[in-house]
């Protein structure tokens, strides 16, 4: 009896592995189909994979204007387009660097944060203030946990006089009332530079976009 069970055990394991693989394939296919009809929006984080050259694979943030920068392609318009349309654009843009058309896959890794004004009026919110060279200055209600880059994507964009290399995040310690200022180069990030850590915003934070200097 024991020998009979042992004889059929490997076959049962093989069948179970096949069933599990098929199940995972169905899940992956369903996820891909769910994204096909979605149109990308500013604030979304996209995952880009180039099978023939992993060094080109990366995550990119869709900027306020709806675009992002990619090597050999430059500025890519993503806002209002599907992931498959974006992948086609990237494929055409880098094709000259390969002997055969590369395989490029684009997916939505993180959706833009939804603010109460977008249909979640009952959700808790924090207050963030925009000052300076932004098209939508003033108080913004922001979903807790939103990062600086995600919220900048909701600012309405920048004016032509914005000093994008010197954007400031000003935060006041409620206990000591001491103000801390962090400056970062948004222009470098929009051109594809990596950000070591995206700051999670706190209630009362002030985002200041200064005016460009004469030769800046």
Walk me through the structure:
Helices cover 26% and strands 25% of the residues. It has helices spanning 2-36, 83-94, 148-152, 186-190, and strands at 45-50, 58-61, 67-70, 74-77, 104-110, 126-132, 138-142, 167-172, 179-184, 206-209. The strands form three sheets. The chain has a five-stranded mixed beta sheet with strand order 7-6-10-8-9, with no helix packed on it. It is elongated and about 60 Å long. The protein starts with a helix and ends in a 7-residue tail after the last strand. Mean pLDDT is 77; it is low at 1-9, 14-35 and 115-122.
Question: What is the topology?
Answer:
Layout: H1 2-36, E1 45-50, E2 58-61, E3 67-70, E4 74-77, H2 83-94, E5 104-110, E6 126-132, E7 138-142, H3 148-152, E8 167-172, E9 179-184, H4 186-190, E10 206-209
Parallel strand pairs: 6-10
Antiparallel strand pairs: 1-2, 1-5, 3-4, 6-7, 8-9, 8-10
Report the end-to-end length measured between terminal Cα atoms: 84 Å
Low-confidence stretches: 1-9, 14-35, 115-122
Query: Within the largest sheet, what's the order of strands?
Result: 7-6-10-8-9
Radius of gyration, rounded? 23 Å
Helix content: 25-40%
SS-based class: alpha+beta
Quickly count the helices: 4
Mean pLDDT: 77
Provide the succession of SSEs.
HEEEEHEEEHEEHE
**General shape:** elongated
Largest sheet, in brief, is: 5 strands, mixed
The tally of beta strands, per DSSP, is 10
């Amino acid at each position: 009896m024991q020998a009979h069970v042992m004889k059929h055990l490997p076959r049962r394991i093989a069948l179970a592995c096949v069933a599990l693989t098929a199940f995972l394939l169905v899940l992956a296919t369903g996820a891909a189909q769910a994204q096909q009809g979605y149109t990308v929006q500013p604030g979304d984080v996209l995952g880009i994979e180039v099978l023939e050259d992993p060094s080109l694979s990366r995550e990119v943030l869709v900027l306020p204007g709806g675009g992002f920068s990619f090597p050999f392609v430059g500025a890519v318009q993503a806002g209002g387009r599907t992931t498959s349309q974006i992948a086609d654009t990237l494929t055409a843009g880098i094709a000259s660097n390969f002997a055969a058309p590369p395989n490029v896959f684009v997916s939505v890794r993180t959706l833009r944060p939804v603010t109460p004004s977008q249909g979640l009026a009952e959700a808790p919110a924090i207050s963030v203030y925009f000052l300076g060279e932004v098209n939508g200055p003033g108080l913004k209600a922001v979903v807790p946990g939103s990062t600086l880059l995600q919220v900048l994507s909701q600012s309405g964009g920048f004016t032509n006089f914005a000093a994008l290399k010197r954007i400031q995040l000003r935060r006041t310690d409620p206990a000591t009332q001491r103000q801390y200022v962090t400056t970062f180069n948004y222009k470098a990030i929009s051109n594809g530079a990596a950000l070591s850590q995206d700051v999670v915003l706190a209630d009362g934070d002030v985002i200041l976009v200064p005016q460009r200097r004469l030769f800046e």
